[in-house]
Amino acid sequence: MRVLHFFKTYWPDTFGGIERSIHAIAKGAEKYGVQSDVLSLSKSPETNTLAFDGHIAYKAKLDFEFASTGFSRDVFRHFRELSKEADVIHFHFPWPLMDIVNLATRHGKPTIATYHSDIVKQRTLLKLYQPLMFRFLGGMDRIVATSPNYLRSSEILRAFNSKTSVIPLGLSEGDYPVAAEETKARWRDRLPKRFFLFTGVLRYYKGVHVLLESARQTGFEVVLIGSGPVEDDLKRTVRQQNLANVHFLGALPDEDKVAILDLSLGLVFPSHLRSEAFGLSLVEAAMRGKPMISCEIGTGTSFVNLDGETGLVIRPNDATALSQAMARLWNDHQLALSYGANARRRYETNFTAEQMAQSYAELYREVAGSR
């Protein structure tokens, strides 16, 4: 069976949460007889075909971007050619151009869409896009939500409840390097003895401004891995408030990230808006057996991190609540260890790439067979 994944970005241009998920599905489903291709856009597609972990990443020329949406004339031709070879087409929502390509090419193939997130920021444009969006989702054979929490809380998904199933996102430990002892020793010498960790792209919805306020209130050491659009604003706040206990490390390779995560007291993930649909950083923390602090925003973050079991779930955008949660883990070592052990067990039960890939392989065959 051959499956074509379609999303606006992919390796090597970007490798964020959705891209990691596509990679894990493509790599893991090969074991079940599924050959995958991935089509995405690129500003400089020097070559249109790149081999990556057993599948091919195809690139169409990105012409321009508007409202976080990439546009391309070239992608219609690429999609038309690749869809002819596919048994199932796997769309990764949202990306409005994808809806247009699907409608314009009339490929006639079985389709599924993984619904990664509601459209949260572009509310005005959403009103214009809604008719096309509902036509696109209505035409899918199956829709996949990434958590039961998101299925319950999304008004859009509830409209398609009868054909929507849940397959949680998952990660493979094998895709992460083992942190060498010398790497851990190097970071141990450089970082505070005890610290909370944040990892992720520094975007408007990540709630890092709340974490900085909690760092000011508590004085606890906080380390941040990642870069992004609001990085300069956050660093300006740190300088203005003289927060010597906040340490920006920038984007780091996975080996360094794993080493620092292992050294940390736990992960603080203060995303406060629904744009944070799942939170693979939480899965990474659970995989390493670390307790977590996250916010209740009605999305998959509270499916990965169970309040009082794998960590603490607090009100969003509330620095006092976050400070209190950090203090509980800082002052109760046994509680932190217990949450971390529970998080590791929950990862093994619910969030491995193997489970995700197997579930998708079964869904591909079900959808193809129904045609």
UniProtKB/TrEMBL annotation:
* InterPro entries the UniProt entry points to: Glyco_trans_1, Glyco_trans_4-like_N, Glycosyltransferase_grp1
A Pfam family matched by this chain, by name?
Glyco_transf_4
**Which terms in the Gene Ontology molecular function aspect does this entry carry?**
glycosyltransferase activity
Which positions fall inside the Glycosyltransferase subfamily 4-like N-terminal domain?
A: 15-170
Lineage: superkingdom: Bacteria
Could you tell me which PANTHER family the record lists for this protein? Answer: SULFOQUINOVOSYL TRANSFERASE SQD2
What is the name listed in the Swiss-Prot or TrEMBL entry for this protein?
Answer: Glycosyl transferase family 1
Which species is this record about? Rhizobium leguminosarum
Q: What is the lineage of its organism?
A: Bacteria, Pseudomonadati, Pseudomonadota, Alphaproteobacteria, Hyphomicrobiales
